[in-house]
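Researcher: Good morning. I'm working through a list of sequences from a screen, and I'd like to move beyond sequence-only analysis. For each chain I'm collecting a predicted structure so we can compare shapes side by side. This is the next one on the list. No need for commentary yet; just the structure.
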Amino acid sequence: MFSDGQILFAKIFLVSFILFMIYLYRKDLKMHKRYYPKVWQVGLTTVLIIVLFTIIVFSLHK
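Model: Good morning. Structure tokens for this chain:
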């Protein structure tokens, strides 16, 4: 389906992309801590709301 060159390119691209994203995240880590100190609370609240709605929907359809 794919040639050896295409698979090699995909692997190199994937590894370099992930490393580049890690580098950029670490570079901006101080800014994230300064401007978004409670972002974990927003994420946790979002997950809890989704879980709550899922429980409600499944309990109403029984």
